[in-house]
Design brief:
This protein has about 550 residues and is α+β, with helices and mostly antiparallel strands. The chain has helices spanning about 15-35, 40-45, 70-80, 165-175, 180-210, 210-235, 290-300, 310-315, 335-355, 415-420, 525-530, and strands at about 50-55, 60-65, 90-95, 105-115, 120-130, 155-160, 165, 240-245, 255-265, 270, 315-320, 370-375, 385, 425-430, 450-455, 460-465, 485, 490, 495-500, 505-510. It has two domains: about 15-225, no CATH class; about 365-538, no CATH class. It contains eleven helices and 20 strands. A seven-stranded antiparallel beta sheet has the order 2-1-5-4-3-6-7, sandwiched between helices. Strands 14-15-20-17-18 form a five-stranded antiparallel beta sheet. The chain is globular and about 65 Å long. One of its GO terms (biological process) is glutathione metabolic process.
Length: about 550
């Protein structure tokens, strides 16, 4: 049961709880509007999108439970828009990772929310568009060396000004993308999602009164802050260090080091990435906002995931990375893989550090990759993009989960029926990888295998990880299996972009999760209980 205490804002606990749920429902309704209105399978089927509500100061008030890497980085987008002195009725579009974005395929819309010609907040939607131009279909090139190769780059730009859509900007956004018809429909869905937020907020003003709702903004932030600092205070003070590696950046195959020192000091956590490798030639650089989003995700997991996610639970956490490092790169660094793969490794390394403070709260490593697969035609006739699930690491009290998205992504898979209807692709195999989870008192989850036959000449891009460094087990548990990529049965590197002919098969075998605890201590009684409950046990 959620604790509801009085807040400094003077709102009673019952009103606070009602408002908190209503504000969160606005974010959720935004998400549903976007998903139902989108045209591309990447958004309507996989739900690779996120929505949130912010106050006039740019503080996150509520978010839908969508994509962690989107949501934790959203405040940077709102901050970039506020620097441009937005006016009531304005809507900004952006994707530039150096001015509020994450990577170029993630297109963000920030709409002003106003009452009596005064801005009272912002509605924000972020969606991964299946193509935004660049050197390869799908805008996820494995070998990009600079951001210019990755697609159309949009700094915060007014798409709607004073309530009127700017057709010149709209045309510009669509001018250099493949399948502009699909992109146009997805942009309309984002606009509709933000408009839904305006309608719902206006209804709250009518129901509760404007001043009460605005006081509620402060109250929900204070509430989350109080709960978060209490959780952090329960962690043992100290500095905890960890190091992990990425497997090449698409230009070289050399290991790349991410180092972290997590310092717990009373009611605050400082996360310092000094010692992390410098900015890379390839595209695994991650904007600082992406690194922050990974840190916030881990802190929420290690404390209390039920704390309402908003600005209040992020306030006690500070994140630093040296300028010019791979976690705080300078233009024109390529970054498309940093958002999807480096964010996963930041998650892993911060979990590893905090495991020394709270070992029972941290699972063994999961697959640690999004297994990005992009297949598209250079004529723009189709672009398929997928992140493929894998093994979740075993917990201290139960087995890991099989074939799920792990860490910074939270998407569904694209159903086979949808893939074969929408694209010139045929799914030959989609199954769990037997014995891919690490053994332990509790076993790691199983990875997946997906084999796709390409029925038209196309370009295939793979951005993957954990192909040579296995997801680690803990407390005596064994490592999960590494992943593998194959084209026509031959193994290819973790990062690869290649043109293929019709009839080519592409197979992605995803990693399993690490095990937890000594395999010899696996309890047969617990196994039998799992079997009776219909759960996987061996």
């Amino acid at each position: 049961m959620t604790d509801t205490t009085d807040t400094d804002a003077g709102i009673d606990p019952v009103t606070l709880e009602v408002l908190r749920n209503q504000l969160e429902s606005i974010a959720e309704e935004m998400g549903q509007t976007l998903i139902r209105g989108a045209y591309s399978p990447n958004i309507k089927e996989r739900r690779d999108c996120s929505t949130a509500l912010f106050d006039a100061e740019g503080r996150m008030i509520a978010q839908a439970e969508h994509i962690p890497v989107h949501l934790g980085a959203m405040p940077a987008a709102v901050e970039a828009v506020r620097d441009l002195e937005p006016q009531p009725g304005d809507v900004f579009v952006l994707n530039d990772p150096f001015t509020g974005g994450t990577h170029l395929p993630d297109v963000t819309m920030v709409s002003t929310l106003s009452a009596d010609d005064e801005i009272v907040g912002y509605a924000v939607s972020r969606a991964h568009h299946a193509d935004v131009g660049g050197m390869t279909p799908g805008s996820m090139p494995a070998g990009a060396r600079e951001i210019y190769q990755e697609g159309l780059r949009l700094p915060p730009t007014r798409l709607v000004e004073g309530g009127d859509r700017r057709e010149d900007v709209h045309s510009l956004v669509l001018a250099n993308v493949r399948n502009s018809r699909e992109r146009r429909a997805d942009l309309r869905a984002q606009l509709a999602a933000n408009e839904r937020a305006a309608e719902r907020l206006e209804a709250l003003f009518v129901e509760h009164g404007r001043e009460t709702v605005l006081e509620g903004f402060d109250a929900v932030i204070d509430y989350s802050h109080e709960r978060m600092v209490d959780e952090i205070a329960d962690l043992p003070d100290g500095s905890y260090e960890a190091t992990d590696h990425l497997e090449g950046d698409g230009v070289t195959n050399d290991d790349i080091e991410i180092s972290v020192t997590v310092t717990v000091d009373g009611e605050e956590i400082d996360v310092d990435f000094s010692g992390t490798d410098d900015q890379l030639a390839g595209n695994l650089n991650a904007p600082l906002a992406v690194a922050k989003s990974a840190v916030y995700f881990v802190v929420r997991c290690v404390t209390d995931p039920e704390i309402p996610p908003n600005h209040g639970c992020y306030e006690p956490v500070s994140v630093d990375a040296p300028e010019g490092s791979m976690l705080n790169p300078e233009p024109p660094a390529a970054v498309v893989g940093g958002n999807v793969e480096t964010s996963q490794r930041v998650t892993d390394v911060v979990f590893t550090a905090l495991a020394k403070a709270a070992p029972d709260r941290v699972p063994a490593q999961g697959q640690g990759t999004m297994n990005n697969l992009t297949i598209g035609a250079r004529d723009g006739s189709f672009t398929y993009y997928e992140t493929i699930g894998g093994g979740f690491g075993a917990r201290a009290d139960r087995d890991g989960m099989d074939g799920v998205q792990v860490g910074m992504t939270n998407t569904l898979n694209t159903p086979v029926e949808s893939i074969e209807t929408e694209y010139p692709l045929r799914i030959e195999r989609y199954a769990l990888r037997e014995d891919s989870g690490g053994d332990g008192q509790f076993r790691g989850g199983l990875g997946l295998e997906r084999t796709v036959t390409v029925e038209k000449d196309a370009t295939v891009s793979l951005l993957t990880e954990r192909r040579r460094h296995a997801p680690a087990g803990v407390a005596g548990g064994e490592d999960g299996a590494t992943g593998e990529n194959l084209i026509d049965g031959e193994s290819v590197p973790a990062k690869r972009t290649v043109d293929v002919e019709a009839g080519t098969t592409v197979t992605v075998r995803t990693p399993g999760g690490g095990g937890h605890g000594d395999p010899d201590e696996r309890d047969e009684a617990a196994l039998e209980a799992d079997r009776r409950a219909g759960k996987r046990s061996d």
